[in-house]
Amino acid sequence: MDPSATAFPHRDAAFSFTVAPKWTDPGRDDELISWAREFHEAMSPYAADGVYVNYLDDEEDRVRTAYGERYERLVDLKNEWDPANLFRMNQDIKLTV
């Protein structure tokens, strides 16, 4: 399949990795947030550029970055096929019409 034929730009990635630490003791916030940030930094050299769009909230700038060069094509499709913006939840492609 042509990698540029779909909206998802990371078709060649072998793995998807998420770190989601959780705890119940607010007294450990600083310690565990620091651990998560340090772990993220340690893994960064091995990560692909960008972000998987389904890991985002409605963060317009990051959604645009997640789709990369495909974003403008998705805007065109959104304008044509969803001009009423029915599909506007989560990682929305913004209309330009």
From TrEMBL:
Question: What keywords does the record list, in alphabetical order?
Answer: FAD, Flavoprotein, Oxidoreductase
Sequence ranges assigned to domain Berberine/berberine-like in this UniProt record? 51-93
Oxidoreductase: is it a keyword of this entry? yes
**Cofactor list:** FAD
Keyword Repeat on entry: no
Q: What's one Pfam family here?
A: BBE
What domain of life? Answer: Archaea
Q: Which GO terms describe its molecular function?
A: flavin adenine dinucleotide binding; oxidoreductase activity
Q: Which PANTHER family match?
A: BINDING OXIDOREDUCTASE, PUTATIVE (AFU_ORTHOLOGUE AFUA_1G17690)-RELATED, FAD-BINDING PCMH-TYPE DOMAIN-CONTAINING PROTEIN
| Protein name, per record | Berberine/berberine-like domain-containing protein
